[in-house]
User: Which sequence fits this backbone?
């Protein structure tokens, strides 16, 4: 998408009989800066574009020489190209950088670059852009900007990391969600307090407890113990301990995405240490759970089946794979399921039961010892057939 800012700016200025010096004085910049804009060797900061357009009584689209429709179409084309690239490929990173050049204020692109960029200088730059373009609420950072800052803190040099931590983070006791819960209790609004308490319990489980049970960079046995404990916590909450290998009593509920995702990783670790029978039992259990989940009618209401989370519920929405989570164009044509717990503002916790198409990732090397097992192949085929029968 080629911008015509340089020639349009010069044309507008000359049509008003305004010198570069006069325009520069009005904008509070040097005339050399205006000269660079008009020769195309530089561009105004994004915040200055509305000021320039207002000065010449024109629209941003006319100033830039591109219509809103053109920009939207160009953005769609680039997003379609992005969706066709493998998730972890260098080509994807290059394409995101190209998109950032064309659409510097696209926060979805900035967010992705903040996450995947290894170059510390670039990570600092993209994080700064996330902060600059953020629609920051008065009571704190928006969650995506906060997450980007977190990634920068993880990568930063020690001294800089401490500065960022002091500037952008708060002690847990001051967390917004906990303050809302505490205030509801102090105001004797018991119904609201119970809702806030349950929301915070769920968020704590998902973001703090469960994430720390997925032990990284540790021996396989510790990873197995961590994932087994995670699934045991869910069993304890739902009262289904010991009924099935990993699916509780085998009935789908709002724990389904967490059970499915973590149990298949557990099966992979078990297969890697040659505990083949336990690994295959888990996969067979997941195949049964998968079939039941996908057979649920549209708008079936699910809960967490726990008295301590009984304020939470979500319908199963029949849909297609989201472009955000699909790994290729083919996936975008496939049926999927969407679960969104309406009592939770997922944008605030940066976590969601997004569009979900479960499958067993048998290409993982940990499955080598059982990849040719008939039981595994039957389970994978059952799940594929379930999806093929589906109509959205």
Assistant:
């Amino acid at each position: 998408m080629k911008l015509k800012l340089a020639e349009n700016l010069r044309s507008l200025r000359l049509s008003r009989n305004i010198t570069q010096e006069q325009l520069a004085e009005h904008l509070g910049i040097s005339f050399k800066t205006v000269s660079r804009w008009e020769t195309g060797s530089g561009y105004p900061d994004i915040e200055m574009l509305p000021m320039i357009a207002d000065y010449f009584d024109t629209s941003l689209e006319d100033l830039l020489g591109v219509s809103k429709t053109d920009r939207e179409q160009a953005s769609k084309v680039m997003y379609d190209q992005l969706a066709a690239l493998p998730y972890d490929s260098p080509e994807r990173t290059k394409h995101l950088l190209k998109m950032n050049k064309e659409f510097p204020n696209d926060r979805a692109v900035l967010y992705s670059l903040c996450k995947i960029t290894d170059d510390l200088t670039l990570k600092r730059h993209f994080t700064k852009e996330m902060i600059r373009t953020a629609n920051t609420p008065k009571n704190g950072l928006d969650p995506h900007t906060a997450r980007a800052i977190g990634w920068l803190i993880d990568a930063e040099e020690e001294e800089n990391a401490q500065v960022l931590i002091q500037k952008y983070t708060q002690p847990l006791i001051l967390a917004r969600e906990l303050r809302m819960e505490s205030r509801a209790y102090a105001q004797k609004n018991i119904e609201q307090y119970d809702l806030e308490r349950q929301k915070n319990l769920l968020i704590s489980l998902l973001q703090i407890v469960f994430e720390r049970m997925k032990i990284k960079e540790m021996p396989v046995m510790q990873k197995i113990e961590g994932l087994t404990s995670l699934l045991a916590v869910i069993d304890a909450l739902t009262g289904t301990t010991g009924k099935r290998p990993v699916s509780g009593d085998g009935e789908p509920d709002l724990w389904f995405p967490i059970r499915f995702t973590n149990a298949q990783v557990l099966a992979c670790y078990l297969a890697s240490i040659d505990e083949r029978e336990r690994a295959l039992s888990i996969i067979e259990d997941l195949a049964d759970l998968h079939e039941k989940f996908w057979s649920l009618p549209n708008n079936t209401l699910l809960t967490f089946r726990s008295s301590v989370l009984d304020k939470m519920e979500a319908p199963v929405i029949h849909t297609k794979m989201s472009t955000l989570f699909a790994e290729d164009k083919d996936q975008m044509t496939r049926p999927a399921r969407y679960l969104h717990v309406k009592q939770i503002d997922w944008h605030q916790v940066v976590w969601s039961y997004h569009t979900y198409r479960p499958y067993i990732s048998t290409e993982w090397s940990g499955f080598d010892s059982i990849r040719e097992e008939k039981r595994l192949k039957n389970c994978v085929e059952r799940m594929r057939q379930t999806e093929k029968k589906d109509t959205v």
About this structure: The beta strands are 301-303, 313-320, 335-339. Residues 299 and 315 are 5 Å apart (CA to CA).
